[in-house]
Amino acid sequence: MSDPCRPVYTGRFAPSPTGELHLGSLATALASYLQARYHHGRWLIRIDDIDPQRERPGSAASIVATLEQFGLFPDAPVIYQSQRAALYHSAITQLLDQDLAYPCACSRADLDRNGRYPGHCRAGMPPGAQQRSLRVRCEQAQISFMDALAGAQHIHLQQHTGDFVIRRADACFAYQLCCAVDDAAPTITEVVRGMDLLDSTAQQIHIRRLLQLHSPRYAHIPVIVDEHGKKLSKRDQADPLLHGDHITAMRQALTHLQHPPPAAITSIDGLLTWALSHWQPARLSSAWA
Ligand code: GLU
Ligand code: ZN
Asked: Which domains does the chain have, with CATH numbers?
């Protein structure tokens, strides 16, 4: 029986609409979907379209349509970050009101050699300086979390990024802020996403702590790399998905997720049904060995 006090398992897939769905993002979508179904939970799609400069027109619709061709239908209408500016705004107001965030006049050139912000404007911008961005205070924030696959993580934010940007110089809300807010409402209980985002997790947990919001659990899956060890890009010529070969793409994505399907299954429906009944999250851990 489900516990009425415990929120129902809710997972999500959150692509940025910067191009077509590719093999790497298909694997992430499948992992989050199969994990949600394994827990008898809900699965949502969120389009991270908060950065118009990086967006490719038509790609949000095309990503959703491609996911549907793989049988991956969300349990609620697709969420668009571009429609949630009021939420990001109120989170920022809350942080500023409590002096947990502050205006900063610095540019990239002011970061230290390791890309960390040294805190020049923490006690106020220099007189006459023009505000560029907003930063959140990290002070002594030590973030520890247990990643289901990567294991225990301990991050000292001041040594990692320093006070980081939550609203950019071009007035866009920063990804860390939007994602932190969006994974709290509607409540996401587990985020399954690529390992390339492991570093962002501490920043997102930090923002949610300051806003007194709950954080989900995390499972960062290994990303698909090419033969040179480089993360697959949206333009990778070797990607079967970009050539319309859905069956090969689905087989490769499941194999990457440590669930190689039997050769006899040759339809998308068949592959998805097989994956749903064979999904064992523990198998993913072996990909970390
Ligand atoms: N939209 C971002 C990306 O595709 C973030 C995804 C996430 O937080 O899962 O890289
Ligand atoms: Zn500054």
From this structure: 10-288 (3.40.50.620)
